[in-house]
């Protein structure tokens, strides 16, 4: 599974910032990791600027958490799809008509990306994908990752044409 590098910045009410760099396969996966570390009384983060410097984050003392994608070995990343030209997206939707793949891929993306993809789809495909999304999904993260990879590989080949 692809591991992306993200910078996570915690901002306190007095505007003090603490940063760490973490790896995760997707933004929702990273958010779950961060929340798990914050919920763990023994959980800590490593400061990204100082070696061997650790810090704890108490959820009540954080006013904002910023997530920034630093590195991905994919040419097009699922969270960056919303920056792809609408004409290329329409071509993708004409080329790949499988609502199941889109639904699986959308299970583990941020709401902005999900909304972008659904609004760019034609009405017929969007209704099919929304129907698939309303069904209860019991899928492994690997299946979601594979669906996203199929979608991104198809998109990458369309961009390279």
Describe the structure.
β1 (4-11) and β2 form a beta hairpin. The protein has helices at residues 27-39, 86-95, 99-106, 111-120, 123-134, 141-160; strands at 4-11, 17-24, 45-46, 54-55, 64-71. With 161 residues, it is of the alpha+beta class. The chain folds into two domains: 4-71, no CATH class; 78-160, Orthogonal Bundle (Annexin V, domain 1), CATH 1.10.220. α2 (86-95) crosses α6 and α3 packs across α6. It has a three-stranded antiparallel beta sheet. The protein has a two-stranded antiparallel sheet with strand order 3-4. Pfam families: FliG_C. This is FliG C-terminal domain-containing protein. Residues 74-160 form the Flagellar motor switch protein FliG C-terminal domain. InterPro entries: Flg_Motor_Flig_C, FliG_a-hlx.
As a percent range, the share of strand residues is: 15-25%
CATH fold annotation of the largest domain: Annexin V, domain 1
If helices are DSSP runs of H or I spanning 4 or more residues, what is the number of helices? 6
Percent helix range: 40-55%
For the residues shown, what is the average pLDDT? Answer: 87
Taken in chain order, the helices and strands follow as EEHEEEHHHHH
Strand elements, count? 5
Domain Flagellar motor switch protein FliG C-terminal: 74-160
Protein name: FliG C-terminal domain-containing protein
Give structural attributes.
17% strand, two-stranded antiparallel ribbon, 2 domains, 3-stranded antiparallel beta sheet, 161 residues, 6 helices, alpha+beta, 45% helix, single chain, Annexin V, domain 1
């Amino acid at each position: 599974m692809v591991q992306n590098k993200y910078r996570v910045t915690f901002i306190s009410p007095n505007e003090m910032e603490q940063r760490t760099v973490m790896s995760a396969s997707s933004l929702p996966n990273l958010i779950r990791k961060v929340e798990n570390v914050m919920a763990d009384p023994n959980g800590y983060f490593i400061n990204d600027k100082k070696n061997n410097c650790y810090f704890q984050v108490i959820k009540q003392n954080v006013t904002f958490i910023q997530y920034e994608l630093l590195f991905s070995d994919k040419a097009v990343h699922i969270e960056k799809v919303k920056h792809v030209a609408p004409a290329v997206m329409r071509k993708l939707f004409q080329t790949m008509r499988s609502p199941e793949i889109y639904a699986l891929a959308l299970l583990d993306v941020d709401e902005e990306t999900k909304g972008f993809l659904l609004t760019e789809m034609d009405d017929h495909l969007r209704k099919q994908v929304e129907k698939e999304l309303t069904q209860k999904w019991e899928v492994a993260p690997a299946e979601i990752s594979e669906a996203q990879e199929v979608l991104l590989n198809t998109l990458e080949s369309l961009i390279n044409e």
